């Protein structure tokens, strides 16, 4: 029987279009909840989709379908953003979101996308800066939804305001950077979920879980500069010089941040002069 790490590695080897997003999100959950039985939340997800199919009119226009779906998910079933404890790790675990009906933008978006797909609605995750969104529909009729806020549709003017809050007035706009609304790949969605967990476990000082989240991210995308650097420094702090050197040397090869490369190069030189310790 394979363990959670092996199952996750198998998933990571799949081409993006063959990754089952719900199964991938549950594989993330399984890394931090060893006793998780992934088939149970999948059954719960299918049950929700079946119920939603009885509530969302198949022949209605997109706006009416979205309105009915939002009512089903957020009003009838009570799914909501966890505004009281946003950084609770359980908000990042799809099984816990299904059970507690609380989540953060990305996990609620995964839930929304997966149920929408089972209803035949074209929905995609969008890695919008600062706040994960859902794009539903195609072409000029597509809607941008903030699922964390109950599936509210966001006009372009609101998206521009959010960009201004993050980057300053006039710095970015949807019109000048339409790629900001491109559908995220499944791999990118899973990495973003893991990045949330990396930050949570870093702030909590939980080094074992932080290391697991970093390793999972690098299993999905081996050359992520930030993750390579952070894991390398964490390995150094754990007194595991060989692994630290491997990550930090790879970071220097793939990063384009000259200042950070210089700092990391100095750490590499220091680690390279230390005797190897066996663990």
From TrEMBL:
| Protein name per Swiss-Prot or TrEMBL | Protein SirB1 N-terminal domain-containing protein
Query: Which residues are in the Protein SirB1 N-terminal domain?
Result: 44-195
Source superkingdom:
Bacteria
Extract the InterPro entries matched here. Answer: SirB1_N (IPR032698)
State the similarity comment.
Answer: Belongs to the UPF0162 family.
Return the Pfam families for the record: TPR_9, Transglut_core2
């Amino acid at each position: 029987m394979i363990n959670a790490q092996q199952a996750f590695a198998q998933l990571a080897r799949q081409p993006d279009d063959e990754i089952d997003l719900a199964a991938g999100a549950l594989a993330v959950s399984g890394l931090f909840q060893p006793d998780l039985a992934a088939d149970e939340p999948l059954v719960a997800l299918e049950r929700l989709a079946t119920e939603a199919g009885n509530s969302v009119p198949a022949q209605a226009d997109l706006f009416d379908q979205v309105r009915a779906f939002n009512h089903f998910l957020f009003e009838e079933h009570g799914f909501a953003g966890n505004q009281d404890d946003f950084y609770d790790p359980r908000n990042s675990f799809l099984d816990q979101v299904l059970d507690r009906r609380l989540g953060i933008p990305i996990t609620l978006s995964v839930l929304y996308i997966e149920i929408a797909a089972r209803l035949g609605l074209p929905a995609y995750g969008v890695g919008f800066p600062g706040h994960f969104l859902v794009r539903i529909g195609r072409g000029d009729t597509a809607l941008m939804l903030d699922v964390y806020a109950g599936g509210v549709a966001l006009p372009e003017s609101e998206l521009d305001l959010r960009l201004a809050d993050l980057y300053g007035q006039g710095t970015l706009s949807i019109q000048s950077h339409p790629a900001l609304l491109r559908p995220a790949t499944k791999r990118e969605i899973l990495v973003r979920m893991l990045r949330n967990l990396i930050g949570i476990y870093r702030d909590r000082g939980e080094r074992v879980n932080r290391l697991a989240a970093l390793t999972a991210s690098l299993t999905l995308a081996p050359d992520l500069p930030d993750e390579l650097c952070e894991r390398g420094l964490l390995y150094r702090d754990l007194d595991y010089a060989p692994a630290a050197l491997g990550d930090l040397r790879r970071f220097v090869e793939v990063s384009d941040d000259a200042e950070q490369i210089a700092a990391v190069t100095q750490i590499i030189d220091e680690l390279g002069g230390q005797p190897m310790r066996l663990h």
